[in-house]
Amino acid sequence: MTAPVPNRHTHTAIIERTGVIIDYRTGSTTVLTGTALARWLDALEQSAAPAPVTVQASAISWGTSESAACLPFLPRPPWRWALAATVLLLCTLGVRQLGSRRTRFGRLVRLAEAGRNLSPPPREQAALAVRSVRWVARFLPARVACLEESTAASLLLACRGRGGAWRHGIATDPIRLHAWICDIHARPVEEPDQTDDYTPLNTPAATAKRHR
């Protein structure tokens, strides 16, 4: 497989002696080892790509984890939050469906990071945004996974003047990706404990090189 060219859209995760490159335009991933990884890391130094992120290995789970057997009860959020969440989730789903399938991931990433230069949200506000989107999602006949949910919640916070809350990260055993919302202290909001297994790839420190 031909390695991608480092650019401001490529994020690199280093897992022991393996590199996982994620293209934030397309969502495609490439795994590199050995000399191919060494060449990639050398090329990063001469590019505008974000600096590589070292991923700590997760505790061994043998590829299994416990999940709830049913959805938890979600009380209806305040109407203004529910209405805004409805509009923004529909907007998110519309952006996902319109345009090329190849760039679908990139379109949602741009939406999710729209408010990245705003002040981070307090935990209570971030939690209300996530719960509002989840409450609305239960009434829509459409697939709403972590990327769509976190994107809509990030937009909802941006409308409230808060941002920089969207996180996208990677975990090991097996290698997997996840998107979520964090609070002002960078802690995951309305997420299970297993989310701590994920190392964020798009923190301000990790992406600083992209904007140099």
Automatic annotation (TrEMBL):
Annotated region Disordered: where? 192-212
Entry coiled-coil feature ranges: none
Q: Which residues form the Microcin J25-processing protein McjB C-terminal domain?
A: 95-202
Origin, by domain of life?
Answer: Bacteria
Classification via Pfam families: Transglut_core3
**Name of the molecule in the record:** Lasso peptide biosynthesis B2 protein
